[in-house]
Write a structure and sequence with these properties.
This protein has one domain. 71% of the residues lie in helices and 0% in strands. The chain is built from ten helices and no strands. The longest helix is centred in the last third of the chain and has 32 residues. The two termini are 20 Å apart.
Length: 272
Amino acid sequence: MITSDISHAAGQQGGLWQYRHFVLSSIRNEMISRFSRSKLGGLWMIINPLSQVLIYALIFSNVLASKLPDSDNKYSYAFYLLAGQLAWMLFNEVITRSLNIFIEQGDLMKKMSFPRSTLPAIAIGSSLLNNFFLLIAVLGIFLVFGQSFSLLMLWLIPLTFVVIILAMGIGLILGIFNVFLRDIGHVVPIVLQVWFWFTPIVYPEKIIPEKYRHLMEINPMYTMVNAYHDILVYQQAPQLESIAIVLAGALAMLLLSLFIFRRASAEMVDVL
């Protein structure tokens, strides 16, 4: 699908904005091709993550639900899981897609002239679309099981973009390095799995011994997941100071990744 879109756009000169129609059509075609032979179609984007939440809820709810602060709702642990997974799955998907995107599209990069920046843009667009559908499903579940909504939920919009910037900065660097050293593609999923369990998504922060909790602040996703919990579970404003620190670090990482990308772009084509 991407090949035909690039063929249409390859004769043009310009940056990412000039190729916006190519990016949008590639995202659309990717969604269509991913689920074209599936009976349930795009519902699998929702079913897979929700099934993970159900498994964790069944296994851990009796043990950990009582440790949630202000957990007067019997479904509070499920809400806690859903909110944390909403943030993590966006982060994980952007990194995972960015990790292999240059390798997967290596033939196109060698054969056709087009802005390489469109490839990460397609990865971000697809991940955002998946996350949007998951958010709708999560909000629907919250509504059915009695969790009220408020205007605080508008904070999810900037928080989503902070997660995107953070994940893209990390994912783009890893994707570039993966072209030259393919072992990175095998190591990163393991690191992400460890990272997941060092982030309070399945378990509440309260179970960590207090003397070690300050170490969690090293993890930027700890801050972002907590922000999602504050908004969706506890219905309170996120801690803006902590988010600002994460955003500053994410922007620095993204700028570094773009610098490396510009310097390594030609060599990547040769290696691919």
